[in-house]
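Appendix B. Raw example, untouched.
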Amino acid sequence: MWQKIIKKLAWKWRGLLVTAPSITILLIGLYLTGSLQIFELAAFDQFIRLRPQKSVDTKILIVGFTESDIQTLGMAILSDELLAQLIENLKKHQPEAIGLDIYRDLPEEPGYQKLVKVFESTPNLIGIRKVVGNQNNSPINPPPVLDKLNQVGANDLPIDADTKIRRFFLYLTDSEGKIVPSLGLKLAIIYLQKLKIFPEPAAVNPEYLQLGEAVFIPFENNHGGYVQANAEGYQIILNYRSPESKFQQVSVTDVLNNKVPPELVRDKIILIGSVAESKKDLFLTPYSSKIIGIPEVMSGVGINANITSMIINAALGEMNIIKSWPEFLEWVWIFLWSVIGAGVSWKWRYSGGFSQFSGKSIITLFVATGGLLSISYYAFLWGLWIPVITPLLAIWFSAIAITAFIAKTAGYIRNVFSRYLTDEVVGNLLENPDGLKLNCQRRKVTILMSDLRGFSAISERSEPETIFAMLNIYLEEMTEVINQYSGTIYDFIGDGILVVFGTPTEIEDDAERAVACAVAMQMSMPRVNAKLKESGLPEIKMGIGINTGEVVVGNLGCNKKSKYGVIGSNINLASRIESYTVGGQIMISGNTLEEVSSIIKIVQQKSVRIKGFSKAITIYQVGAIAGKYNLFLPINSENFVDLLEAVPIQFAVIDGKEIREELISGSLVKVSANSAEVKSNYLVDVMSNLQINLLTKTVQGQKMDYFYAKVTGKKDDRSGFYIHFTAISPEVEQMLEAWVAANS
């Protein structure tokens, strides 16, 4: 029982079961190559930019060396004397800590000794060094005095491939194996000490640093959106507090001139550094990722202000450290959205009863996309960085894959059902949500009805497999011709074909195409018979009737089973006209003649009385169609030969589908390959169908195999009539050929 349920569910959701895992594997493979890293980092940047701005961190003050300071002081680099004065002016207002984000590995006279004394007398002053450098800069030594006092922090920053700063070093190890904390960490520890918060090993892992409520989990090479990134050192994702402009900031000149209020400095962390563009200490950050406009850059001192602020506020539980999921959870996350994308598309893959990618699925996919972005955004606000772009691609790639699967399936269905329905009807069902709700409509159309002459007799003498083989060869050729002329095949009625021109799509030249199609169909019959002969099957002949008039078209049936069909007396008239044809003939009604008279050749016309019509109507035999079609039927002249001795026959008139019981005597006096002259006192109506039995001399009174013929005319002296053979057995055919040869 469970196996059946599982099998049923597997079939019902087969598209989902194949697509979701495949898309997940594809995207994880793409993700692991790093191809999507740049997009994940871009999403990270936008989350940083879009989240609510935090209030100004009043614990930090930036003393910036501006372009105005350079012009006012007349120097691009602060001299040691001015730097010493700057620090002294700040010290008197009792800052909590001072971070000197200016390299001072060499003297900048005048005033070097004075600066040394200031360094020695300021225990809460932290200088900087570049520990490892990068591809553009080599390591830079710290101020010697501060180095001896262990008042130096690392100023290195890892730069991403797009040259943006999204990480920082908490610790670094120099070439001598010494651990060097970053400038931001040194300043934060000084500030937190007054709050009785000290660095200690984390409870979850003693190798992790813990400060207050914050556990700093080291960055890994596949952290968040990163793939195989350089994770050397103790790196942390930088959770920016705000752009540099949001920090409190004063100029160097203002401090030197004692224009800074004491309360702005007291108990604060002071960061001294260059903010002038000419100093080129500027970096791209997540705030640089503007969709429109010039990228915004941030100074090195501004980045250090964000690092210091993050460490302090994380320790106080006021700011989140950005964490990420383990890799396997990220893969599960991607798979989940693949399932959603594929499931939504598969669930509503049909609309209006047949294959159609519905509006419901489109709307739901956009809702799912919004849900993914919302979940990822709010998770980011809480300090969790989860993949965004990869699952987003998973949703839409899965949807596209399902759509492609549906399209392929629809194509297969189209190919299969086009054998039974017209391409137009199948297309309507596949592509129109209301395809199964086609209302009845009145249309002026041209109806073509074809039928094989004497096929019933052939069927009686042949096995069912033979009949199927013959019909398939015939119908395949005819269908190809009909499609060339954009006819709509509405039904195969045994050996007959009902074709309509003018529905579902109406075109001005419907009648012309119908007649041209009929001529082309007759011209293709030699190819059909050649194929039948190769297969050892008997040859066949076809008659075609055409009529133009109004019909009703639309769906017939119910919700469970329906058929797109045509109804009306004009269909019956086309069928009746066809019944008056012999093999190779095309007969059309007067209505059709009015539509095509300028380009067709009429070789014969007849007045006939048709059952169901009160008056006689004239039908016309088509011999050719000119214009752009330029198609001609071969003219077959009947060469009758007189039989040296009349051949006795018995015949019965076929009334509709029934053969009358009355047998009438007569004789064949002239024959040709396809016709004969019959002598009989019983005059049969023209266009009547006959079943004929030959009575030979050698078997007098015994019936031979019968054959079928249609009466095509009467003798003027009323002594007999002419017939056209519609179906004859091979034995009778050989006998007729022998008579023609012997009497020629």
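End of appendix B.
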